[in-house]
Design a protein that fits this description.
The protein contains six helices and 16 strands. It has about 260 residues and is of the alpha+beta class. Strands 1, 4, 5, 6 and 11 form a five-stranded mixed β-sheet that branches. The chain has a five-stranded antiparallel β-sheet with strand order 12-13-10-7-16. Helix 1 packs antiparallel against helix 2.
């Protein structure tokens, strides 16, 4: 099994449910024969409304805001740990992240590559937090690219639907070892290019770009002078737009390092 390769795409979808007026709809659809029955049914419908309102209130009480998004308290704890405090990410000379990898796979019907989603369980001071995200110390290349050569298109849609991301070979090796340990599978090296002179790997990173898809955000540290001393603590970030927005700004068209 370990000879096969794993090609992973991770997608997150949030669906919002509404419980409002479900009790009234139920009451309106009941044909009551007399006033006594109506009272009993009305009390049952009222009790159901109260139960649903209580459930909705309980759900809302377990939700908090993180960077403008409504997430559960448990997920917010993991997100703050990973992205606000910059802990347990894969990077150069960083301690091994305290993460377990899990995979749900499906075979496309041919070949040796399986597709699926990865999930990650973080150990945060003994508390297990599940996230659909993992963080890595990388460089994102937003420098202008030659898009035509001898009249032929090159790097089509660069900066909109995909970008080059660079990271040390050792960092990618560490990430791949976590996948292997957690799932028993190897990671496919498709869409990666290794530069042995610099010991860097270039990856074609896909980005959401179509209408209705949440585009990847580009955040910067508010106080860069304080960020070094605050490493591992709460650091404040400001969203400057999507990666596509930043790529369109001439003064931002260079290689950016970040997590």
């Amino acid at each position: 099994m370990s000879r096969n390769c794993l090609d992973v795409d991770v997608e997150v979808e949030v669906e919002e449910n509404s419980f409002e007026n479900s009790g009234r709809m139920m009451e309106a659809n009941i044909n009551v024969p007399n006033i006594a029955n109506h009272i009993v049914i009305d009390q049952a419908a009222q009790a159901q409304r109260e139960d649903e309102e209580s459930a909705a209130s309980s759900t809302n009480s377990n939700m908090v805001k993180w960077r403008g998004n409504a997430v559960s308290k448990k997920e917010a704890k993991g997100l703050r740990h990973v992205f606000d405090n910059l802990q347990d990410h894969f990077g150069h000379e960083r301690p091994d992240p305290r993460i377990r990898f899990k995979a749900s796979l499906a075979h496309p019907g041919q070949g040796q590559i399986w597709n699926g989603d990865l999930d990650f369980t973080y150990d945060i001071n003994g508390d297990q937090c599940d996230l659909a995200y993992v963080s890595m110390d990388v460089c994102v290349d937003l420098t202008p690219k030659l898009v035509h050569k001898h009249g032929q298109p090159m790097l089509k849609d660069y900066g909109n639907s995909w970008v080059y991301v660079y990271l040390p070979g050792l960092t990618l090796d560490k990430f791949n070892s976590y996948v292997k340990i957690g799932t028993g599978w190897d990671v496919s090296n498709e869409r990666t290019v290794y530069d042995p002179n610099r010991n860097l790997v270039a990856i074609e990173a896909k980005m959401h770009h179509e209408s209705g898809q949440p585009k990847p955000s580009f955040w910067v540290v508010k106080d860069k002078d304080a960020s070094a001393s605050a490493y591992g603590k709460d650091i404040s970030f400001t969203r400057v737009g999507s990666i596509q927005d930043v790529n369109a700004q001439p003064h931002q068209q260079h290689v950016h390092r970040g997590v």
